[in-house]
Every structure is written in structure tokens, then in C-alpha cells.
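Try it yourself: sequence plus pyridoxal-5'-phosphate, in.
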Amino acid sequence: MKYNFDKLTDRRGVNSLKWDCAVGELPMWVADMDFENAPCIQKAVEERAKKGIFGYTVVDEEWYNSIINWWSRRHNWHIQRDWLIFCTGIVPAITSMVKRLSEVGDDVVILTPVYDIFFHSVENTGRHVAESPLLYDGQYSIDWADLEQKLSRPTASLMILCNPHNPVGKLWSAEELKRIGDLCIKHHVTVISDEIHCDICGPESSYVPFASLGEKYAQNCAVCISATKAFNIAGLQCAAVAVPNEALRAKVERGLNSDEVAEPNCFAAVATSAAFDGGEEWLDELNAYILQNRDFAESFFKEKLSKLRPVQGNSSYLLWVDCSAVTGDAEKLCAHLRADAGLWITAGGQYRGNGKSFVRINMACPRARLADGLERLERGLKTFKN
Ligand SMILES: Cc1ncc(COP(=O)(O)O)c(C=O)c1O
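Structure, out:
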């Protein structure tokens, strides 16, 4: 490998959300990686910083081109320049789109368990979450009858899709996405597809951009994309929404502008372009490393934590672990693990659906740190009283 993902980085002392915890604690919760950024990003940001003036900024052609080329080259989705709107993050974009594309009191359909902030975007703006829980038999799948029932409600106006799906680590297939897309068209529900996790997956797994499935699907969606998850640059606040339909795009654009989330800081576009233009090799090595971390963790669970069952995922560095053989209250388990073993992981209840008996563990760290986390989990589990 050209890049050293084993390097034990020190993230304390820089106001890291993840690492701002007690000394001795090991945070493996928020989706933020412990690796140094790709050198091409570091260099681009340093060069911009050296200019020494940090005034108001706009995105340049390079920003558009780097995104268009990346999706075309890696994901066979041919984004047109006009479709792209800059925004400071995917969460701000989703909240803004919920406000623009639905009415107060409407239902927003969401497959659960899912990234919990979706619920905040919906509920904090006076809409309702129409939850369609995924079916679970060791693997997750869509309950199609339930999904259609939720989408067919007269009050349903939006669906927020997570593709790939955090936290269960599932890449939806083209067939599944088309079926979702057809149901949404049938019931006049607009799709917001959050594809932030799309670039973290193994070589044999392939992410299908929702809007690449065909014109009718593309015309009924807004797709959220960014370099922030795969390249770990969330602190630079840069994302994009791609909206192929002109009328829909006008609404989204107006919403993003009036919510004041459509202007970049002076590092946002620089870092995005550097990532997409120069970070491909780094990302491929990162994905290989994460896959090895997943194998390492799965072996550890088999040998030493056999009561806990990692759900097999084909994307993301987040391990979703079924703890139902130990407890139905993962919140209690997580509080115990933090207090007893200094391990900070996420209790799955916040993702709704069947999440209450699951935990989410972030494996995007040097392997030695992952081993430390798993050992803490083993130790903490021994003293856990349900
Ligand atoms: C599915 C999903 N969407 C959005 C985000 C956050 O996006 P942003 O930092 O661009 O607001 C996350 C962060 O983990 C996520 O998992």
C-alpha cells in the first residue's frame, strides 16, 4: 500500500466532535474517520491557506467538473452541470428541501432503521415521519406492502432514501431502487436520495445512483452527494444537490438560497476538487483497508463475541451489530460500555425501526485502534448485567 492507514493519528486538541471526550475513552461512534486526509487534499488546502486572505468565495468550474467526472468515471452517472447546486452540507440541504418540497403536516416516508438526523429534518420542520420499517431476518429487506401503504397516504409528499443505507450498510440494487422509484412516481411522492456514503464500498459491490436508473426516476428526485464521507472532510462543509428536473431544481435552489446554505467557505470547493481529481488511488486503498477491518472485526466477533452478530453489509465503515441475544436495550449496554470500558459507540434505538437491540460501531480507524475497541467491547460485555 502507498498510504499508511495503520498510522495511529492523534485527533485531540483540535475541537474534534468525535475526540472531544475524556482521556482514556475511545470514541467509535460518529461517522468520522481517524485517518489523515489524502495528501492531495492536504496540499490543496495548504496552498489555499497560504494565500492568506479568506474572503467570500464562490465555486469555480473545477468544482463542477470534478464532480461530473467522478460520477461519470466511477459510477456511470452523467450529471449535467446545470443540475448541480452547492450546499454547505447534506443535512442542511435535506432540511431545506423538506421545507420547500412538502407542507407542514405532510408525511415524509423513511425506511428504518436509518440515519437519525433525517427524523430531525422532518420533525423539526413540522412534518411527520411515516416510518416503513425494514424487514429483518439476519439481513434487511424492504417490506414492499408497507412501503406502498405509507407512500399512498394522501399526506405523503416526500421520501428520503439513504443509498447506500446507513446504518445497516446496504447498497440497494438497481431493481430495488427502480421499485422504490416506481412506487414514488405512482403515488406522486418526490424522492430525496442521500448518497453521501456511496464511495465507501468493497470492489465487488456496486453503488447505483438513483437518478442513473432512467429519465422518469431522474425527473422525480433530488440527489445529495459529496466528498465529505469518503474523504473525511466534513469539517470543510461542502456538498452538492443534483436535480435533473428544472422545475424541481428551481424550488430546491430557492430553498437552499433562502436558508443561506448555498455559499461555500474558501476551502470547500478546493478540497472537493482535490479529492475527486486526485484522491482516487487513496480512496481505493482506503476501501481495501476498511474491508480488511471488517474481516478483522467479523473474525473477532466469531471467536470472542459470539453472542453479538454483525449484520453483513456491502458498504460503509459502520458496523451494525445485532445485540438481541444479550439485550433488548442497547442504550443501557452502550452506557455500560462507556462507563466500564471507556468505549463510546452508538446505541441503535435512535435510528428507530428495530434499532433498539443494535449498536453501531465506526471501524474507520487504524487496525490497532479497532482491536482496542473490540477488546473493550469484550471486557465491557463480561460485566454487563441486563
Ligand atoms: C446518511 C447521512 N447523511 C448525511 C450525513 C451528514 O452530512 P453532512 O455532514 O454533509 O451534513 C451523514 C453523516 O454521517 C449521513 O450518514
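One thing you can check immediately is this: The chain has a mean pLDDT of 97.
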